Amino acid sequence: MAKKLREADVLLRSALFFFTFWTTLTFPSYLYLEHFLINLAQYFIAGAVLSVFVAWVTRGMFLVIEELSFFYLKYMFRIFLYWMNLFLNIILAGIDVARRVMRKDLLISPGIIEFYTPLKDDWLIAFNSNSITLTPGTITVDVKKTKDGTRFLIHCICREAVQDIQASMGFVKEIERIYRDRSQDD
After folding, report:
1. Helices (H) and strands (E) in the chain, counts
2. If pLDDT is split at 50, 70 and 90, which confidence band does 111 have?
3. Are 90 and 136 in contact (CB under 8 A)?
4. Cα 97 from Cα 102, distance rounded (Å)
């Protein structure tokens, strides 16, 4: 019985987080319309239904059921910082790729890099490889789990990107920072 209550609490907290995030990003700009209250009610109902659905689909992805207290807020803040960092990297890499492609001499020197990470969880491996692929100028070509971690094969548009990925191993340091407390509890 207590486990069911905890699962419901996690689902409710996640849905509340998603609803707040969704409302912050998409609050209607039609405040001056004559049917504003009807549209606002539809907006909140749609947001609540979608938030509960997303929370239900991702219920095991973000939070272990036993971890409910202060860690939840720290964890969500770390994920928010990660997304902001990823967004900044996407913008900067997009500008760099556009600059390289628009030049007459095409400052492109593609390369493939192979590196190993300590990541073993499938979710974290997918998180890292998708973050690399989302960044313009890089794409994850192959991922292979080994007994010590994971091998990534990444294609880069230039040598500078190869050096950056070699130094940071993609987004592994940021991902490990997010899951630092979880890995110590396991």
Report:
1. 7, 3
2. confident
3. yes
4. 8
According to CATH, where is 3.30.70 located in the chain? 72-185
Whole-number CA gyration radius for the chain:
21
Report the C-alpha gap between 90 and 80 in whole angstroms. 15
pLDDT of 65 over the 50 cut: no
What rounded mean pLDDT belongs to the chain? 77
Q: Is 3.30.70 the CATH classification of the domain at 72-185?
A: yes
| Cα dihedral sign, 169-21-185-59 | negative
DSSP 27: -
Residue 71 has pLDDT above 70, yes or no: no
Task: Return the C-alpha torsion angle 17, 20, 22, 23, nearest 10.
Answer: 170
For residue 72, pLDDT over 70 is answered with no
φ, ψ for residue 139 (rounded to 5)?
A: -150, 140
Residue type, 29: S
DSSP strands (E only) in 128-175: 138-145, 150-156
- Average confidence (pLDDT) over 46-56: 86
Report the predicted TM-score, pTM, of the whole model to 2 decimal places.
0.59
